[in-house]
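Provenance

Sequences were taken from public entries as deposited. Structures were produced by running a predictor on each sequence independently, with no templates supplied. The record for VWFA domain-containing protein from Capitella teleta is shown for reference.
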Amino acid sequence: MAKGFCRNRLPVMIYFHNISGMTAQLLLFLLLVNVSHAYYMADKPDIGTLTGDVQNWAMLIQNYILQLASEGIKRDFTQTLFDAANYTLEVKDGIELVTRMKEDLTDFFTSKKRAAQKIAKQVVKIYDTNLKEGWNSGYTALPKISRDVYRDSDIPSLLPDDLTFSPYFKQNVSSKWSTVKISDEVPRNSSAVIDTVVFTSKLEDVLKQNSKEDHYLRWQYFGSTVGLARLYPGREWNTNFAGFYNDYDPRTRPWYIAATSGPKDVVIILDCSMSMKGEKFSISQAVAKTVIDTLTKQDYVNVICARASHWNEVGKWHFFTTRVLSCQEEQLVQATISHRKDMIEKIYKLEPGGTSELEKGFELAFQLLESKTRTGCQSIIVFVTDGKDTDGENVRCGPGYYTRSGYVPGPICKYNWTKVWDVADQQNRRMTPQARIFSYLTVDEGEQFPGHLSCHHRGSLKKLNHGENLISQMGNYFDFLSRNARNSKGLWTAPYLDDWGLGLMVTYAMPCISHVDNSTIGVVGIDATLEDLENLLSSQQWGTVYSFLINKHGQTIFHPRLKPSTALVEDPIFIPIEQLEQKGGIPKEFTEVVAAMKAGLTGHKDVFISRTYYYAGLTGSEYSFAFSLSEADKVFRRAQQPQDLSSYGKSYFNLLVEYDSEVARRELPGVFEYLKVFYNEKKYPSLRVSYLHSSIFLAPKCHCDPNAYFYDDDLAQKTVDAHKYINGADADDGCDKGAKYNTGIRAYALITQPVELLWRVREFDGVDDVKWTYVGMRSGVFRTYPAHRSRRTYDPSKRSWFLTSASSPLKTTISTAYMDAAGVGKIITISQALFEGMIPRKPNQCAHLTPPFPSGCPCRGSSDCISGYCYVSVAPGANKEKTRCATERIEAVTSLDILYDRFHMITMRTMEASDLQKSCGSKYNCPDGEYGCQTRCYLFDGSANLITDPDFITANPLDDRKYKGVTMGKKEGEVMKDLIYKHRFFRRTESVDFQGSCGLSPYRPKVTLEGIPKNPEEQDDYYKNKGPIPKFSNEYGCITDVVKYVVNESALGISGMIMGNVSGPCMSGFYYVTALPKTNLFLLVIENWRHYKMSTFYNFNCKIAQSIVNSGAYRIINGTCDHTDSTTETLDEQGKCPLLLDIDIPCMFQTGCQHHTPWLLFICLLLFSHILLVDS
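Predicted structure for VWFA domain-containing protein:
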């Protein structure tokens, strides 16, 4: 750049020397412009030289993809199979659907309640009988108890001897015995523990009977007030990474607390002043955490750190203030997992400092207890302090002053506790309900002030000398909660993650109350998994129908747009259903649907987008469900199996090895030998394949009872049954007549059978690089070649390749690179959509219509059709020889998987420049004459995800973050920025994911696949073959801001190409962007691409430039602020608070006298005053 400028400077100066006046000034100005322009354009040439090449490359790559799809997938042939199929019309009645599903779901929930009631009744009966008779077990130690009575989940020698793996419980369990789990904080040989172990053993019979009566029943258990649980079926307890059994105290679990304490409003006040420094503050933090951890979603909570500013001994001002820790500072927040985590995280970031200022803390506490978001059932303040009224020599309540003798510090702060007493008295007097104050004194002896406060407000004081076993030390608080709310009725908990490995679940929890002494004996729990509910709802879906489940607050429990319950890493945050079904309040009619569902009503509502919501409340639970149907779904076309099966070959189930089982050899002789199953081929390591045929897999939704399918481990019989069904000629009766599979499933297997011959005999360049070829149908039927096993949970209609192709049915779609399930390397998927068979039309049915036309009507081009696709079809009907419109519904997606390296090599080789110098990947001299520029080429999709990138070739296949989901913004931030803000080619979208995942530590790629399930067989069997030590997870639940970019293809304009210069901290160059119009891809070419390296070891500016235009999910540090409470009425206003017994509890504290109760306090103070008068 400098050399070029010096060469041009002399002639310009000579010319300038021979002129004068205004002309000279003008030329000087032009010279300066040219100089600055010369520096600028040295790195940014005005015009690129590859315009024609880029357009040509895009067409060549598109033609390669289309040819690969045509020769490899055989989409047109498969479309003719669907067009030639017979279809029947089924009129769907949404009201009938909802009525039937309401009955099924009501039975589901009612059976759990019935089981809990039977156990609770037996608990109370045994306990009260023992109480009347003055019974005790007679044992003095647990080891002396008979094994028929005592089997322990924590002691290997005392485990049941019949532990066997149960796919329904996903672990080894005992069907003959229950086991007990005793909390680590409970003395194991106390008489209360021993007696409880013995008397709860008498529950065995009712537990087993419940299990026989309800095959959907999961865990059944009883949690005792002494801190042990009896569980059926019996199991060995989970271990930690060190191999020790995890602790478990039923009294701290959500189901127990919800049933015994009832809904409550809790404010925790922490004395954060300087005097709390050290162990005292650590105990204070642990107390707050313990209280928060034992709250449930039915409770409301907030935390206050109380302190004030002060001067120090040399007059320096130190600023502190009393503040509410939750981001929602003016109200209580629901004790969801996110709010609990948020507050605990902030509590442990606190450092003690400042002077005592508890008056403000209590003012805020009572304001929070009267906020609009609360239960209104019971109010509790938990106050943690050291009780001291001074904070040491360094904490002064005045700035000090100077005298002739020197500086005099301000007075030492001495707190006036009477202010707190006055505030609490005044505020609590007008509260409904009035707050109870539980004070916890940390280490010191200052009991008088917090003791008087608690006792006067019907709470209690407890001194804590250490932060261990706080559940036991804080027994006064937890005992009060269990005894004050008299709730003999059961309740359904909010969904939570099961500690015992069954994923997200709800529990029907029922307290057991003695009829003799009215004491709480414990709580019975019966579990129901969300997975069961999802399967029940999903089993009744077709076409575009979907369902969702909400609770009485309108919070979404299940919805297809949320993560499945099995994919969550922590208790979820439940999103208001409006956020999923309404955008900007549209459709407005949905507001009426939500109101009706919250009220538990049954009905239906049409909305303007041609959909109808059918909904119903579930009797005996707090849930409501709904189905959303489009107009097209109300008349459903179902494919029928061909009447003449003579031209159709056999289909084979995907569990190839099971054809070698004893039952298959007996009932299907010779099949295994015929299939010629190969194992561990070079192309398919660790897999069993057959090259003679494709295989059929039936997704869970194909089955009448998905749960029975999931947990059926008799794979041999499953294979025989499926083989006979998909090849049978008998009537396909469906679920209503007791069959295993939904009506029409066999038809989809038969219709697609002929295409396997074409897949088997095809020959074209690159066929050896094709891993799999398959067709996935919306029904859940999946045919793939060569034949091989699929995962038990696999559903082709939910895979990204299916959804992407179905959303762009007129285009051939290409996926991003990803790791093959068998672990052989990076692959991509090329997909094409298949339309439902064309509707036969009579000539007069289309004669009076105007375009766009429906399916089966003649068309001149795709723009004439509603579906956007016009073609010659073999489907019956008039105008068969003419082009006709396709149906609007996608029936299936057919695809092939090809090795990424092969795809990349061919596309890169295609992009050869006409000058033979600037081909993709070539290096050459930059415009300034320096060597090192190159032409960089990328394919990307409509979401800015890179499909090809030169760096993907060298990326370790095990490090999928280097090639899967890599966006343009991450690799070419300057170009991305230009396309977003200058050309409006990308449109930014942003949403909040309340069920996101974040990493505990920086991501590290896998080094090996050793020990990791690689193929479908290992993945299916992992949960029963895994060892006792839990799998390490680097993830935790978090709230994330999800940023995406979507292509605005119209920005390409008439020319179909965007060009521009970029120069930034990462790179410089001239770029071109154009579409591959018949695919979902776009081509980005950067000419004269030059990478910039900073003099420092890390290019921070480049990192920033890339991050601001990168897609992804970013953790919201205070994400709880984005989750607002939609509750408008308190439980008290709804009349749903449990009856409170308003019990009095013992409260004593140490003063200058002895231990005193509140009513003696006045006498004590009078005596103290009398002593002072006598002394004076």
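Residues 94-133 form the longest helix (40 residues).
The chain has 33 helices and 52 strands.
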